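Supplementary Note 3. Input sequence used for the single-chain structure prediction.
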Amino acid sequence: MRKNYNLSLLTISLLLFTLNAHGQENDSTLRQPDKKKINRFIIAGGLAYGTAMIALNELWYKNDPRVKFHFFNDNEEWYKLDKMGHSLSSYHISEISYTAFERAGYTREKALVAAGLTSFLLMTPIEWLDGYSPAYGASLGDIAANTIGFTVFMTQTLIFKKQLLNIKYGFWPSPYASLRPSVLGKSIPEQMLKDYNGQTFWLSIDLHEAISDKIPHWLNLGIGYGANEMVHAREQTNLDNGYYSYRQWYLSIDPDFSHVRTKNKLLKAGIGFLKIIRIPAPSLEFSQKSLKWHWLSF
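The predicted structure, written as discrete structure tokens, is reproduced below.
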């Protein structure tokens, strides 16, 4: 069974990245890149990534023996929710990196190249570590998901010069973690990283920019994706053990406050995280089992 580590990288690294990137003043009059700002970003990013890798090693790899590098096909596991997590991480690391480089004086094109390299350098080494793990292996599916995350950001930046589509993460504890706590998590923080039953990934569509400026900036359309009753990674294994795992789709409003302007650096960081975290709102759930209304959906 594959390890669920992608959100642990996002949780640690994006905190420092967001504080650094949103704490800079935008100066569009810069003719040359500001080396001091770039160095601050690189140092903060290096600290974030170093902290994340140490944490991942402690959580996942510390007690594992090392074997010859190999690949592992996990594309049929967890209904690809782990791949959604990879795309989410890559998308936001790209966005935050791009913002930092652009504010430091890079042109749009150079900032995009730098953001792509940053995303690649942060996400790919994790697959390298997995490639030496006896129970897992490097995943081409994970690498593809990382590429999709950056591509979604890059394409919108080049075509629209803004982000009309945003990827978000939501979580609510599920009853299935207690059935396999060693895999799905013993505590809430662990379950937020490991229990895909409780995770939902959202595509947030900016209706104000995409359709009409009469629609409030904060009112986005949310399309969510999740799955339930996944005690084991693969659908057949769940069936063999009496669990009927299934996909879930959601349609909802998605409150978005990323357009709020403030000079407070801490508040800017908080607003930055609201671009990543789903704010609970009513939703309609579609699945093979039923059609449900939720007054609050995470």
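The chain has two domains: 1-161, 164-298. The longest strand covers residues 219-228.
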